[in-house]
Prior knowledge:
alpha+beta
Amino acid sequence: MNIDDINGFIERGESTDLELKKSTGQRTEAAKTVCAMLNGIGGFVVFGITPDRNIIGQSVSEKTLEDLYHELQRIEPPAFPQIDIVPLPNGQKVIILTVAGGAGSELYTYDGRPYHRQGPTTSRMPRQQYDRLLIERMHASHRWENQPATGISSDDLDPEEILRTIEEAIRRGRMEDPGTRDLSEILMGLGLIHDGELLNAAVVLFGRSDRLLPLYPQCVLRMARFRGIDKNEFIDNRQEYGNAFQLLIRAQRFLLDHLPVAGRIVPNLFERIDDPLYPTEALREALANALCHRDYGGPGGAVSIAIFDDRLEISSTRILPFGLTPDPVSFT
């Protein structure tokens, strides 16, 4: 990197991914910014340039770099940016720290405190934002479904359900025949056993209904048919425990019991044509989504079906992830 490169990227001034420091005497604030950029999209921290983009440089000795290095050591987990030193015509030098964005699962702190960038400003990251980012970045490998199933063994799973699922998936062309019907090998192939341990996802999918309590109370389906358009009085009220496949079947049966089906006779056809109130495919899709995409991490959650005179509600208990709000979640 040379002076022309510096002129090019400082032309737009300080921003989310660029901070200018007059000298390494401001290395403490600079290290906080490095921390913030690690938690964000990355960027550059440049010493020897004033905030108004005046390139003045500074003297750079071995001690200068040692002091800067020790300041950066206060960032946890350890993450050292690339350091480039660019000589200037006036004999001084510019130090450029190139910071990679935090695309991994780590969140960074400086002196035990997380920081983030808001435009050209570095500030302490609010706790709520820190927790949200931590969940986002650790979601894939640390979510509840991927954790070991404590107190559960393969004997607590329904072998018939496992084999039935495999056969149906093969029949529908969703998977190739694994060449085995050994349950442990099938579960490993499905990613439901890791390092020899059964995962929570295996219990949700294939757990025997008589083995789910008291360890997995969240594997529950609550169903009610209310009289009228509110919840003041119900006609039928059921609560079922089971794995996801069992709950899907029981939910469909409940809907068949309570949703009206109109029948009509069509000329030249021997059989009557039935027209359900709601399309069967839409109901199945809604139920499958509620069971598959809900948050099983909390023991108090459930999938719920509520039938009223004027509507049907299918819901699952959880908060929207990653800072989403209901406003942008809409359907037309």
